[in-house]
Amino acid sequence: MRADHSTSGSAGSPWAIVAAVLVGCWAVAVAVGSQTGGWAVDQVLLIGGLGRLVPLWPVICLLTVLLVGTATLPLALIPRSATVRVAARRWLAGALALGALGLLRTIPAVHHEAYLAALAATAMLLAVVTDRLPRRALDPGRPVAGQEEHAEAPQERRGVPDERAARPRVRPSVATLLGVAAGLALLLPWVWLGALGGLLETVLAGLAAAAVGALATALLDARFWGRFEAGEPPRPARLVLVGGLVAGVALLLVGAGVGHSGAQLPLLFALPPAGFTLAALHSLSRRTGGTIGRAPTASLVGLGVFGPLAFTDPEEISLLLVGARDVPFWVAVATGAGLAVGVVLAVAYGLLLARPSARPPRRTVAAATAVVVLITVGLVGGTVGQPGLHGERLFVVLREQADLTGLTGGPGKAGRDARATEVYRRLVDTAERTQADLRRELRRLRLEHTAYYLVNAVEVDGGPAVRAWLTGRPEVARVLVSQRLRPLPAPADDAGGSAVAPTGPPWNIAMIGADRVWSSLGVTGAGVTVGSSDSGVDGRHPTLAEGFRGGDDSWFDPWNGTRTPTDRSGHGTHTAGSAVGRDGIGVAPGAQWVGCVNLDRNLGNPAHYLDCLQFMLAPFPPGGDPFTQGRPARAPEILTNSWGCPPIEGCDPRTLRPATEALEAAGILVVAAAGNTGPFCGSVQDPPAPYPDVLTVGAVDDQRRVTAFSSRGPAAAGVAKPDLTAPGADILSAMPGGGYAVLDGTSMATPQVAGVVALMWSADPGLVGDLDRTRRILRETATAVEADPRSRDRADDCGGVANVAGAGLVDAYAAVSAVRR
């Protein structure tokens, strides 16, 4: 009988062992390759502005299951060795779990709570199904030595007293406590470097992690570990090394399916070493006459999964936020730390628990270990970590928007101010009247909220339940998610510039003739104010300091509450410099500027984009109420906007449409970047660039060719976009700290067009607020450009040259000359 046990549990013939090794390596390679490849495709789509490819993850999951299944299925059926077949069947089950869980990535990342709820339900269902499979489905062959007691206590079932069962069973509790300690150790890097989302999001992440832990328990039960003990007495080294390796591959496959695109990547590194740790815990339980039970596996895997699932926002693991020390950097650091912790745990548990000569730890020692690690996690999270909840908010758009028809006002700034004042009054009146009942209910429910008038909307705290309630209210048109950033463990690096300071006008200023406007026409933009909504502006930069308008209503930072013009990322300083900077870098160096921060770490949301647009219509003092303390007479004449609000930030195509309509009605010109998602046709997508009342700007290079990255039209409803182009490649401008840098993008082109308009309105103050005539002059004086041959696109592909270059390259000298005629 003992010979049968040994044969069925042995590894079998050499070819079966070699085949198992190759199949295991294949499964790991396919899982890692498919997950990293899918994530990379997601990021390329994001950068390219092509939108989510919904079938991407279903296709990847299906291919992964087919590739892994094709290799593991023969190995699960053919070899005589039950051990090899057990390994292959666990890998096949892990691949199937990956496929089922990975399908959930069709749920958009912005609906994270829905994803986590679906993940918890699916993982638990898979755990129940796996646990109730017939024994032979996962465990072929006869029972191996000692498995009778691993499965159940047969003597107790028949009512026969079992002397071992009558004694207090302490050793399984030791394994449980050590499993909890190991899981908390895996969680530690995420508590230190990550940050939690909202309350519901965190609870659902905990439930999902627990369900994944239950799934791992069903796959790696006591019968699985028994296959690797092979004979009497058991061989702990073989159990830990071989069994741990097989378990690690199975855990990697399961982990590859957990989390939205990007959040699963850390689990590919953190979970495999846990297989060896679990093997050591099983060896400890086996040597002390017990079984590993469910708790150690569930706690170790569950806590390991909870870290990246709860402490990372899936929207922030994207190339949208790439920076030297931004979210991707810290996720990579936490992943590396998790891998190191996992390896240390595997080695330490293997040496301390699995050696035959090792003395099993007392329960008090195991309990003390778990408590110490738990206290450490709490201290780290409450001190050097980012304590608190940092969930998203909801952006509630109301059905009724203000009626802005029939406005009157004469030419020039006085007429513009009169229109802006009337627009402001109508917007505020409409918002206060239609929001009254909703805001009363929000106060009663103690839901924090912020009201807006430029778009009749309210931003409010809340999750899916609040969203469902708001959606059902008659005055509500739709409810969007307003993305919020989770804090970083350390501030992102401040941007700086290493380019040489200009000694005269750079090539782009000369190309559009702005320097000729200064020298020949004597116009510099004096008397005009440009509003910059961006990452901020370094108000102390030598080229920008003199142009700041000043007063208590020229700067607003809804993200961080700064009281003076500042900028950490540099994007806003660069764009403001191109519009109004001195020393030759700005198109309108005599104009003034005001600023607002609508981007933090290059991410925005509908509410903060609206905060800045609202501030530009009616500036207000620090801490002031936009509804009652707005000053429309102090509104800047021109707005430069080198940003867009994509779906990943919470916007839909209509979100900011009422805002640009209101600014148009007030006589404030909105200039916006087309985007950097070319050369694809129809890539002018993210608000506000597609709107017909926005002056949308594409980019050309120093050869007057439309750059490959410049987004193309047509926009929604066939609107031709962009309207104009301007230099946008290798543009020299200011950076925080007094430096300079050369950057590319339609972001760089946009402020130059805003600067040209400032020159036009400075030359003829009666043109201020006359947006139709201003656009007509810009179009009529623009010069022809051509497509970049490297982009391999033709104007005809996008419906004509108007959807590639608009009216052409802006010509400052011709436009100002036309104004003066």
TrEMBL record:
Domain spans labelled Peptidase S8/S53: 525-785
Catalytic residues (UniProt): D534, H571, S747
Keyword set, alphabetical order: Hydrolase, Membrane, Protease, Serine protease, Transmembrane, Transmembrane helix
InterPro entries: Peptidase_S8/S53_dom (IPR000209), Peptidase_S8/S53_dom_sf (IPR036852), Peptidase_S8/S53_subtilisin (IPR051048), Peptidase_S8_Ser-AS (IPR023828), Peptidase_S8_subtilisin-rel (IPR015500)
Region span, Disordered: 138-167, 563-583
Bias (Basic and acidic residues): 147-166
Lineage top rank: taxon: Bacteria
Transmembrane residue ranges: 12-34, 54-78, 90-108, 114-133, 174-193, 199-219, 239-259, 265-284, 291-309, 329-352, 364-384
Record carries keyword Transmembrane helix: yes
Record-stated family: Belongs to the peptidase S8 family.
Protein name: Subtilase family protein
Species, as recorded: Micromonospora phaseoli
